[in-house]
Design goal:
644 residues; alpha/beta; 32 strands; binds 5'-O-[(S)-butoxy(hydroxy)phosphoryl]adenosine
Length: 644
Amino acid sequence: MEDKKKAPGIYEDVLNPALNERVKKTAEELRALAAQDREAFWAEMSKNISWYKEWNKIFDDSKAPYYKWFLDGKLNACYNCIDRHLSSWRRNKAAIIFEGELGDSRVLTYQDLYREVNKLANVLKGLGVKRGDVVAIYSQMIPEAVIAMLACTRIGALHSVVFGGFSATALQERINDSKSKVLITADGGYRRGKTVPMKENADKALADNGCPSIEKVIVVKRTGQDVPMEPGRDLWYSELMEEAELHCEPEVMDAEDPLFLLYSSGTTGKPKGILHTVGGYLVGVHTTFKYIFDYQEEDVYWCTADIGWITGHSYLVYGPLLNGATSVIFEGAPDFPAQDRYWRIVEKYGVNIFYTAPTVIRMLMRWGEQWPASRDLSSLRLLASVGEPINPEAWMWFYKHIGRERCPIMDTWWQSETGMILVTPLPGDTYLRPGAASWSFPGVEADVFNEKGEPVKPGEEGFLVVTKPWPAMLRTLYNDEERYLSTYWQQFKGAYLSGDGAKRDEDNLIWVTGRIDDVINVSGHRIGTAEIESSLIEHKAVAEAAVIGKKHELKGQAISAFVTLRDGFDGSDELIAELKQLVVSKIGALARPEDIYFTSELPKTRSGKIMRRLLRDIAEGKVLGDTTTLMDPAVINSIKKQYG
Ligand code: WT7
């Protein structure tokens, strides 16, 4: 990469202000090693993980696309995250700094984490949880949620974390698909000065034998709100922990044994249970955390993601702990009690590395630069972004007002399925391009394909794909092999289809443009249009529904629903409110439609497929694309009239 020395400005390159010989050398060495021999690169990286027994074959593609990594290697994730740090001074190092919404703070050293995780692992064993069983975790952001994840991995059980903002119905669906045996939850959580009814939601999910696989429910006391405890089923976390034994031998796992399940939205109504395995995931996440964030031993790292999403798994729990890092975990929201909550936390703990999402940055922009300006942010050294494309304006604001033109920004592209970051700049890059995720991480081969499956030329757009398997890739979709094959591997032979669109700019850098399938990205949260549509049609007034994501200044995309009503029903404001509430109760507040339009018909192709693309163009006020395949072109005019 040649040196670029242009003045900083939107859409132009920005000099990497933190560039130094150390990071430059690291980037060059990593890229050189990977370019020379991709497998040797990952073999080298695997040495940073502790193995009970080393693997004897790095990679197997004989049953593609069921790829395997680090064959016959034996290891334990929890051992790697905790135990191996205990033999050095790190045992007294803070692993987790928890900042509660009430202003309460708790520090857990590696030794503390070891003790808590071992005890909980013994509790789970005592409740009959065995290797291969699934434990559901439904919680807000509290240290116990992390302890629970690690306790599962210690005994070889899979965790299935369900985002705390999901509704009872969504929780029930995820528990039943995974046949979770135990549910770990809390009485409640704090958010914006209110309590969130976690146990109440869990009870709703479990009521009337709604989740027959669940044998026990472990309840963490966080808010102290009154919650009914069902005798024989519900147990208090604190009581179980009081009696628990202090040591639990980690289970020796095979590299290809499952590590966890994480449900994510796809293009059909049913969420996908993404399955990750132990060896490849740990190697991928360890490596990317270390090099993309330029993590140094004395750093304080803060990722604002929730553990309910993959970012929380890979870069709040596993990545930092595998590296023996200190991370901040925060509960609540960025604007409560005031809009400087983040900057108070950065100042309070001297945060060096800060990883957040574009939607948050745009919100912070709107609140104004006086908030960060009044806090000491001089500890910050590196910034990073994830979740959706970052618009160059937001990038520049982040760079100027948070990084104060001293910190490079890593725009990291990846997905629940990829497990680890795949496309990103490196801290050692000589220049940064605002808005571009830029380059494949060393050892990763991301590319942009045209419809024929050929790499596009500079300046062209296409499908974002990955042409070579990578260690932390998903291994399958739980209970749904067919969908694993058809979703990711059908369109282009041998290449992983991400579902995102991307372009190559004139210098061949990758710019991710967003989802090109029926998935919406609202504030960095991924929601399938089909899930929202199937919630809407449960209402007695609704005949058909089509949901689209339209451009939104803060959220990236906002949900718009087009609904046709059954005979005898009229579209009214009350009905709109009812329908929005229905979606919230079926999925969660994150899926609440921004607007709902009633229409007499939906645009369909002759084969009866709803043309969401046209609806999106109408909603965004764009010139309509090709309408020749429409069954009845008149429908469009009638929708436009109602819309306007
Ligand atoms: C989708 C994956 C991976 C962590 C958070 C979301 C979008 C993610 C970027 C980025 C442009 C991005 C994509 C992707 N996305 N990071 N840096 N630039 N888009 O995980 O819920 O699995 O969603 O988030 O559309 O497919 P997820």
